[in-house]
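Re: export button greyed out
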Amino acid sequence: MASRKESTSVSSTAMASTGGTLDSPVKQIQIEGLVVLKIIKHYQEEGQGSEVVQGVLLGLVVDDRLEITNCFPFPQHTEDDADFDEVQYQMEMMRSLRHVNIDHLHVGWYQSTYYGSFVSRALLDSQFSYQHAIEESVVLIYDPIKTAQGSLSLKAYRLTPKLMEICKEKDFTPEGLKKANIGFEQMFEEVPIVIKNSHLINVLMWELEDKSTVADKHELLNLSSSNHLEKSLQLLMDRVDDMSQDIVKYNTYSRNLSKQQQQKHQYLQRRQQENAQRQSRGEPPLPEEDISKLFKPPQPPPRMDTLLIAGQINNYCQNVKEFTSQNLGKLFMAEALQGHN
Amino acid sequence: MSRFFARSDSESEESSSDDEITDKAPGATFKQSLLLSDDEEDTKRVVRSAKDKRFEELTNLIKTIRNAMKIRDMSKCLEEFEQLCRAFLKSKNIVDKEGIPPFYIRLLADLEDYLNQLWEDKEGKKKMNKNNAKALSTLRQKIRKYNRDFESEIAAYKENPQESADEEEEEKEPEDSGSSSDSEGEVSSKSFLKKKPEAPSEATKFLKTAKGSGDESSSSDEDDDDGDWSPSDTGSSSETSDKEEENALKRKRLVTFLKVQRAQDTEKPGVRKEERKKKPKQKEQIEEEAEEEGGWEKVNRGVPLVKEKPKMFAKGTEINTAVVVKKLNEILQARGKKGTDRAAQIELFHALAAIAAENNLGQGILVKIKFNIIASLYDYNPNLAAFMKPDMWKKCLDCIDELLDILFEHNNIFIGENIAEDSENLAVSDQPFRVRGCILTLVERMDEEFTKIMQNTDPHSQEYVDNLKDEGRVCGIVDRLLTYLENKGSTEEICRVYLRRIMHTYYKFDYKAHRRSLGLQGETKSEQDQEESKEESKEESKEESKGESEGEDSAVIMDRLCKFIYAKDRTDRIRTCAILCHIYHHALHSRWYQARDLMLMSHLQDNIQHADPPVQILYNRTMVQLGICAFRQGMIKDAHNALLDIQSSGRAKELLGQGLLMRNMQERNAEQEKIEKRRQVPFHMHINLELLECVYLVSAMLLEIPYMAAHEFDARRRMISKQFHHQLRVGERQPLLGPPESMREHVVAASKAMKMGDWRTCHSFIINEKMNSKVWDLFPEIQRVREMLVRKIQEESLRTYLFTYSSVYDSISMATLSEMFELEMPTVHSIISKMIINEELMASLDQPTQTVMMHRTEPTSLQNMALKLAEKLGNLVENNERVSDLKQGIYGGYFNRDQKGGYQQKQSYQRDQKSYQQKQSGYQRGGYRNQNQGNY
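Workaround output, generated via the alternate export path:
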């Protein structure tokens, strides 16, 4: 277990190195083992299936490194307690934690995910508000399914400064997004994660690994069932459907727009001709009319959702790719082993 | 006039003293006797025909007008004239029959002359007060306009005013002689006759006024009359000069009155005379009665008839057919009028019937009265929605029974609705009776009333059961009518009564025949034999149980009746109903093929939407019954198809006429609701909706589950039954799955089990205690149906199993399958063979080892998923291209490209679907190309 954690943290570090080049106040995140365990525990106790659990991360910033030293969960929401005050709860929690001498600085939040589907409007909005208030905030995404398959999946994301700009202006029209020159790739930046444990714990881990039986390790070679892929495909398909719909919407919009442009153009031309005629006859030109009133531009569809969907699709694809490459690797290894024997 | 009145006045006072009357009676002068008889005419008054009454009203009015004319009271004149016109209108039908009464014409003519005269007289006009002048002009205009209608008559009158003068003369003479001479003999029969009718009107009136002060209950009509009288009295007495003229007028009126009367009156005067002599003796009693009743009886306003109710005829009147008929007509006049006490009317009819029976007036009149009783029983409820009260209903049934008794006993009575009132022959004579009326209509109406009663009774009460017991009687009556009409009625009538009979038969399950056929099935297998033996047994049973109402097989009856209708009926509706009932009956008795053939042959499915709602309801009922029948026979698909229309709408209750849907309440108004309520089928004819739904759902399950398993990954999979899917979804949405409670939950649970190929669980869900009591026990042949069902479940589960798990197997032994599903080897073999032939299962049979070898050609679910995704991506790319095209401003360009590229690829994909292997390779190529084009 410990070794696995170690390895994933390494791998995630490696993977995140690309995102780390971005200029942001946080270059690296260091998570206490305690936090990881708490998140996992929280999901196992409260989340099932596609349900999502959330919580608050506590820690502090050291240079360009964000250290997450503790966390606490949000209680599960039900319809019954609609009057539950989250802010109140947070403040209470933090105050209580300070009393027991635990880091009480709010540095972000965490959320579990179902087959990597987390890129949503809700996440965007809440992360924006976090980052708006506390610049260094991150969101930790924990994928319990992948974790259950044998590799801990924990990723830290931040909104890119560009997206922050856009969200601040709340301008999600096609033009606005075009001007900002933002694609789905540039929405989130991933911050590398390092999991740090105290030496004592590391020692314990080593010892435990030595003692554990070999049988447990066979799991590594397990070709996970196609169920995972199917689920991913299913979700992917849903997103693709949404995407298609959005595109159709956009299509009609742009067609309407161009049609109107044409009409406007014609109208102006006619007006010009008429004015020219009048001038030649010595009559005063027609009064100028407000063209924008005559031709109300069609309501442009908001593009942010499309962008998010694209991001989500990308995410799914990454997931599937990762998953399949792992499986393929295992298959090749098995083949090689067979050939060797 | 005044003298006359004075006399009668004193007489009436005298009449209160008994001695005098009895003394006087035998030897009294004609005048006296006349007056005496008048006194007790208040009883007699009832006998006056409607004509007399009307004419009397008219004459009264005319008299007032003439009075007003004399005193030049124009406003009064106008008022009265308007009343007169109204009264005349009221008596229109009588006038039509009898011709316009001369006195009426005379008045019109006189009035016009008079008015013209007044008009000319400028001086007089000036003197008139404003009101009168105004009334004069109005009246003048009015009468001009009015008289236009009677121009010819008035002209005739003006030409020959002599006639009236003569009559006046004539009139005066007997009056004089009557008053002067004491001997009865001198009075000519003519004059007697003339006098006589006059008397009742006046005398009664007078009597009324005499005792009227105490008699508060006297009707408004009479009050009015009284009011009219008094001024005339005073007027005549005050002005002596007018007296003569007044008298003359009076006479005139009477004469004309009499003339009409005479024409109508068929009685011989001699008869009357004799009667008269007896009367005084009885008078005493009657007087007493009258006084008592006068004091106590409270009568509704405007119902003069009721007041005299107990005294139908004057005592001693010889009751013969004509009198009774007249009386009957008189009662009928009140029918339908506002304020008529309908219950009392019925009573009157009954009394009349009793009298007719008592006097042996013959069956003709009795039949006539019975007709009227029944009709007025139906009339009792003023609005269509209300239903008969139980006692009324009983009475009605009794009456119809009696009527039928009479009709059966006496062969010489002809009844028909086309017999005119005049050509009726009610009197006892050598000729057969002819009575107007239609017994069939009465019975039909009775049947409808019965339905109405059943509709309006709470079906879960004891009352309903009690009411339902009457069904036997209703059937009995219909049966009797049927035998009657078979002998006498026209084909059309026979068709109608047959339909009634069918309507009472088609929905009943013939348990006797069922049992019989069951018993015989053991002995003889072939159907023909069975048919023959059925006939035999029918005869046997007839002999055995003659007392039983239904010796005949209902199937045989239905067949006979329906075939007659098919052949003879000319109205489409009766035939349609008959066909539907026939089908229903067939279906009910599990004669599936006959029922289906009849349904298909009749082509009712094509044009039933043009029929009226009740027939459509019947059609729906029939379809449902057909579906249930198909289910019992194991024709699951047919059952499903038959029930689909009804069930898919979700309004089965409404479509079958078994209740109104709540959610429609807002949409329809009260009127519509009433109409719909009237269409409801009585509870005892209901088809169990739960049974219906269960049959439908189970059929859907048996069809849908294997289909779903076979087409699990097909994107374009259609649904066989939406409703079933809906139920499944509802089941899935349950957060907590407990053991099934309702019928639907059972079916859903069974479906789930079947999906896994677990037939045992499926079986236990479909057939268990709960479901038995809820559904299956309602079938007549429970055991057979259950066996069929188990068999079907096994077979379909096997198919589902093969569809679902074929990808898991390389090969599977048929012996194992047969063991798993407890089916015989040949059955398993045939099912698998069918699946292979239909290309549902990619496999082959290995004969020597008796195994099924799977070909493994179907794509796995993941592959299917990938295919779907690729398709979707294709669409996405296509849409994307459009956007980019639009951006670049190439209109129409992408259409061309699409036709070459995107769409063609799609088509090829569709083609590929036929063979999976091809598809995979083919599509992947296409898909990649697509992606290459679009994304990169």
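The first strand of chain A starts at residue 28 and ends at 32. The button fix ships in the next patch.
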